[in-house]
Design brief:
The chain has 176 residues and is of the alpha/beta class. A hairpin with a 5-residue loop joins strand 2 and strand 3 (37-44). The chain contains 7 helices and 5 strands; from the N terminus they run βββαααβαβααα. It has one domain: Ribonuclease H-like superfamily/Ribonuclease H (Nucleotidyltransferase, domain 5, 2-Layer Sandwich), CATH 3.30.420.
Length: 176
């Protein structure tokens, strides 16, 4: 297995990878031996706002965060897809990491960009499971500080997930 985790987060117009669109992508590679970060990627995807279908809750959330205002100046999806493919090729067998990364983010990437995830491990590192552990193991729950919840901006959420995993790994005295 690779020593690398690729923390990934997407912001989208909804929950259905077949119908909804990717609005923002962020990825940071972390070496689990040294916890050094490398190869950061962050992109807002160019969209015509009038052509996007979103329920009111999602539209309000992305308006509040400022993401919708950035879409007209975003990058074409094809450019971001190529950059993601190069990143994944650089770290063969790396695991994708993030909250619900296996069932949400990876599913969106594969629906929109085909098999660009093929070089990666089939295993995912789900940060949500670590957060849920607080309710499963009383001894494990107490030392966790209150981490900020999702900000619904991809780069902020990736950085938050890295902070959570690093804290838990340090508390457990282990490396991943």
């Amino acid at each position: 297995m690779s020593n690398y985790l690729i923390f990934l987060d997407l912001e989208t117009t909804g929950l259905d990878p077949r119908r909804d669109q990717i609005l923002e992508v962020a990825a940071i590679v972390v070496d689990t031996e040294t916890w050094e970060e490398s190869s950061p990627l962050h992109a807002v995807i160019k969209h015509d706002l009038s052509s996007l279908h979103m329920v009111d809750f999602v539209r309000d959330m992305h308006t509040r965060t400022g993401l919708l205002a950035e879409l007209e100046h975003g990058r074409p999806w094809s450019d971001v897809q190529e950059e993601l493919a190069r990143l994944f090729d650089l770290y063969p067998r790396a695991r994708l990491a993030g909250r619900n990364v296996g069932t949400f983010d990876r599913a969106f990437i594969e629906a929109k960009a085909g098999l660009i995830t093929a070089p990666l491990s089939h295993q995912n590192f789900d940060v949500s499971t670590l957060l849920n552990a607080r309710t499963w193991f009383a001894d494990f729950a107490d030392p966790l500080p209150a981490f900020e919840g999702t900000q619904h901006r991809a780069l902020d959420d990736v950085r938050n997930d890295i902070e959570i995993v690093l804290f838990i790994a340090n508390e457990m005295g282990t490396r991943l």
